[in-house]
């Protein structure tokens, strides 16, 4: 729940992490356990900021990498973020036996900008 504030005036935080089961919807996808990560970005600058190149990743502490999927209704951060405004993005990652695992979530709100890394246990 704590935000990471960058010198750039942008801050990001993890609003929610939850485990769901997803059903494959497109060729190449698989059904199974997935983790939904909801990320918030706040613009504390006087300028509009682009979120179009935002990247969020999830890695389990045991080395397994969460694989992004279009199943589970992802809605990534995108578009322009006006000064003083907030935006949220929803990211879905396939991760076997997700509940109870220690994970790291990396958030890069724009290409070439700092990366925030959040760690914790999925409940």
In short:
The protein has strands at 4-5, 10-22, 32-43, 49-50, 55-60, 67-68, 80-81, 86-94, 102-108, 116-121. With 123 residues, the chain is mostly beta strands. It starts with a strand and ends with a strand.
SSE run: EEEEEEEEEE
> Which regions have little confidence, pLDDT < 50, spanning 5+ residues?
none
Q: Look at the helices and sheets and give the structural class.
A: mainly beta
Number of separate helices: 0
**Average pLDDT reading:** 94
Q: Helix fraction?
A: under 10%
For the secondary structure, the number of strands is 10
Task: Kindly report the spatial arrangement of strands forming the biggest sheet.
Answer: 1-2-3-8-6
Distance between the termini: 14 Å
As a percent range, the share of strand residues is over 45%
Please describe the biggest sheet, giving its number of strands, its sense, and whether it closes into a barrel: 5 strands, antiparallel
Categorize the overall geometry: globular
Q: Kindly provide the radius of gyration, computed on alpha-carbon positions and rounded to a whole number of angstroms.
A: 15 Å
Report what the structure shows.
The protein has 123 residues and is mainly β. Helices cover 0% and strands 50% of the residues. It is built from no helices and ten strands. The strands form three sheets. The protein has a five-stranded antiparallel β-sheet, with no helix packed on it. The protein is globular, with a radius of gyration of 15 Å.
């Amino acid at each position: 729940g704590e935000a990471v504030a960058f010198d750039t005036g942008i801050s990001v935080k993890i609003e929610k992490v939850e485990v769901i089961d997803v059903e494959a919807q497109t060729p190449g996808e698989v059904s199974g356990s997935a983790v939904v990560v909801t990320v918030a970005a706040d613009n504390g600058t006087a300028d509009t900021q682009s979120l179009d190149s935002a990247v969020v990743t999830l890695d389990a502490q045991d080395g397994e990498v969460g694989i992004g999927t279009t199943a589970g209704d992802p809605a990534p951060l995108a578009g322009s973020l006006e000064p003083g405004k907030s935006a949220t993005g929803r990211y879905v990652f396939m991760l076997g036996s997700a509940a109870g695992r220690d994970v790291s979530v990396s958030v890069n709100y724009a290409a070439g900008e700092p990366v925030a890394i959040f760690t914790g246990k999925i409940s």
